[in-house]
Amino acid sequence: AIRLRDLRKSFGETTAVAGVDLEIRDGEFFSMLGPSGSGKTTVLRMIAGFESPTGGTIELAGQDVTGLAPFERDVHTVFQDYALFPHMTVEQNVAYGLKVRGVPKSERLVRARQALAEVRLEGYGARRPAQLSGGQRQRVALARALVGRPRLLLLDEPLGALDLKLREQMQVELKALQREVGITFVFVTHDQEEALTMSDRIAVFDQGRIQQVGTPAEVYERPATPFVASFVGTSN
Ligand code: ATP
Q: Which ligand 1 atom is nearest residue 208's CA?
């Protein structure tokens, strides 16, 4: 499980995260939903270790990781811009995640191919990222994240750059993939439909605080605050 206790972050005068308490269960598809500037990305970056909190603690699998570097956390992050290496092939991009973990070369290739099969990209290993569509690039980024079997996958608006049709298709695929691998996914989005469709539970953020945590049905049918009612109930 992930436990956040009174997590806070300020950037100068700006309070990005104003005291967040949250528990995310193992194997859960958990979304952090909220409007732009509500602090969800900053929470994600603190879980990943890219930002250090101004206050509070982060616990992963029973260990306080608040002061640890990103690579000491057994966490992987997928960003909206994919961050693939353009000069490497698809296979090399995926295998790279294992190289930094010290997996021997012979094993890296086998596991990279397995991961590419999981995201339905068999046969694309020799291409370069520029020779792929947006959806395929996103799948490569997912394969690279999953190949090392991290305990936790953090996804920061990973479908944000895709057009609507592809986005809906990837929502279904991503959800199925999460079920298959059984890894905890923490997904950041400002799109309430996306969060409602994909998540086991959702935390709704506003102004650096969580307004409500619940299943999609709970959040949609019994919003805890007027903010949740208006944000979740209307399409933006
Ligand atoms: P978005 O969906 O637009 O990314 P968000 O809900 O993820 O929004 P955050 O990115 O967490 O929100 O930002 C929360 C607040 O903190 C915003 O007011 C933002 O301007 C501020 N902020 C975030 N990162 C920094 C930074 N590195 N320096 C200064 N202010 C920052």
A: 14
Its ipTM equals 0.93
pTM of the full structure: 0.90
**How many angstroms does the Cα of residue 156 sit away from the middle of ligand 1?**
13
> Computed from CA positions of residues 19, 24, 159, 76, in that sequence, does the dihedral angle turn out positive or negative?
positive
Distances (CA, A) of 71 to 4, 28, 97, 157: 19, 22, 11, 21
Contacts of 89 (CB under 8 A, 6+ apart): 125, 126, 127, 128
* pLDDT tens track for 109-157: 999 999 999 888 999 999 999 999 888 888 899 899 888 888 899 999 8
* Ligand 1 binding pocket, CB closer than 6 Å: 11, 14, 16, 34, 36-42, 190
Whose alpha carbon is nearest atom 26 of ligand 1?
A: 11
Residue with tokens 């306080």: 64
Closest to 146 measured CA to CA, from 76, 214, 219, 79: 76
Which residues have a Cβ under 8 Å from the Cβ of 86 and sit 6 or more positions away? 128, 129, 130
Residue nearest to atom 15 of ligand 1 (CA): 16
Are 7 and 55 contacting, i.e. CB atoms less than 8 angstroms apart? Answer: yes
Residue nearest to atom 16 of ligand 1 (CA): 16
